[in-house]
Amino acid sequence: METDKRNLQRTMTSRHITMMALGGAIGAGLFKGSSSAIDMAGPSVIIAYLIGGIILLFIMQGLAEMAVRNSGARTFRDLVQSILGKYPAYFLDWIYWKMWVLNITAESVVAAIFIQYWLPGYPIWILALAVSVLVTAINLLSVKVFAETEYWLALIKITVIIVFIMAGLLLLLVTFGDHTAVGFSNLTDHGGFFPNGSTGLITAMLVVIYSYGGTEIIGVTLAETKNPEKVVPKAVRSTLVRIISFYIIPFFIIVSLIPWNEVNGVPESPFVMVFQMIGIPGADHIMNAVVLLAIISSMNSGLYGSSRVLYTQAVDGRIPKIFSRLSKKKVPVYAILMCTSALYGGVLISLFAGSKTFDFLMGSLGYTVLFIWLIIAIAHLKSRKKHPEKTSAYSVKWFPYTTWAAIIALITILIGIIFTTSIIVTIITLSIYFFITLTYVWKRRFNKI
C-alpha cells in the first residue's frame, strides 16, 4: 500500500465519465422512485422532471466551467474552497459523501426488491447483502476495470430505455392485433393533468432532485480523468441531453399508457408494467433484469464517488492517513471498505424496515442533492469575480442569468419541500448537517483543518 496522492492514475476517458454520470443518475430514482413521483404529481410529473432537468443543465454548466478554470482540482472541495472558503468546501465534501453512502444503501434495498420478483421466498436483507458484496468486489479492482464495467452496465440500461421509448410510442399510437392505440386520454381523464394541484408538483420535486442527483459525480473524477479541461465540458454536454431525454420521454409514456393512480402500490416498477403490456413472452423478466443492472450500475458509481471523497480528505490530512493508501492496482482500498460499511449498515436496517428503507432514505437524499447543487451554483456565481485573471476555454454563455435562475429555483423548491415533507425526515437531515458543522468547528478550534 502507498499513500502518495500522485498514484491515482488518469485512466478514465470521456466515454467512461459520461457513462458514469449516467450510471449515477439513471438508477433507483428513475426505476423505483418513478412510482412515488407519479403518485405525488400525477401526469404533471412531466413538468417536474422538465424543471429539474433545466436546473441540472445550469448547475452542470457552472461545474464544467469551474473545472476547466481549475485543471489541478481533484474533487468538489478543490473547486469550491478557493472561491467560497473552507467551511462551504468542508460541508460540501461531507454532505456529498453522506449522499452517496446513503444512496448506495437505499439502492441495495431496491436491488433486493427487484431480485425478490424472482425469489419471493428470500428476505430483503439477504438479497441486499449479496448485491453489496458484488458491488464492493467490482470497486476493489483497478480503476480501469471499474470504469469499463460501469460503461457497459450504463450502456445496457440506456439501450433498454431506448427500446422502452420505441415500444411505448408503439402502444400509444398504433393499433395492432388485439391492441387498440391507447392515445393520450390518461393525461387528463383521472383528475386532470394536475390532480394534486401545485402542492403535488412541489412535493414531487424532492423525488425529481433525488433522481437527477449523481450527475455531478463528474466533479469527483477530475484526478483520474485524462485532459479534464477538455473531457469534462464534453461529458457535461452529452450527459445532459441524454439524461433529460431518458427521464422526460419515459415519464410521458408511462403516465400516458397507465392511469397515474394505478402506478403506486404495485411491486413492479412502472417500466416493468409497460413491458408487460407489450405482450412479449418474458418481457417483464427481461425488464426486471435490466432495472436490476441499472441499480447495480448506480451503486457502482456511488461507491466510487464516496470513496474518492474519503481518499482526498485523507491525502490532505483531514482524516486518518490509512484512507489514502492505495493497492497495487492504484485503488484506495480502505476508503472503499469504509464506504461499503454503510451498505452493510443498510442491510441491518432492512432486516427490520424491509422495503420501506428506500422511502425513508430518499427524503434525506433529496435535501442533500438540493444543498450540493446550491453550493455549486453559488461558487460558480462568485468564481469569475474571485479569479478574474483566469481565462477559460469553456464559458457559460448566459452567465450569470442561468446561475441566478438555478439558485432562485432551488431555494423555492427547498421552501416548498420543507412544508410538504415529513417533519421526521427534515429533522434527521438537519441533525446530520448540524453534526457536520460541529465537527468543522471542533477541527478549526484545534487547528486540524
Automatic annotation (TrEMBL):
It comes from the Bacteria. GO terms for biological process: amino acid transport; transmembrane transport. Gene3D superfamilies: Amino acid/polyamine transporter I. The keyword Membrane applies. GO terms for cellular component: plasma membrane. Keywords: Amino-acid transport, Membrane, Transmembrane, Transmembrane helix, Transport. The chain crosses the membrane at residues 46-68, 100-119, 125-147, 154-177, 197-219, 240-260, 331-354, 360-378, 398-417, 423-442. It is found in: Cell membrane. It is a multi-pass membrane protein. Residues 16-425 form the Amino acid permease/ SLC12A domain. PANTHER family: GABA PERMEASE, GAMMA-AMINOBUTYRIC ACID PERMEASE. This is Amino acid permease. The lineage of its organism: Bacteria, Bacillati, Bacillota, Bacilli, Bacillales.
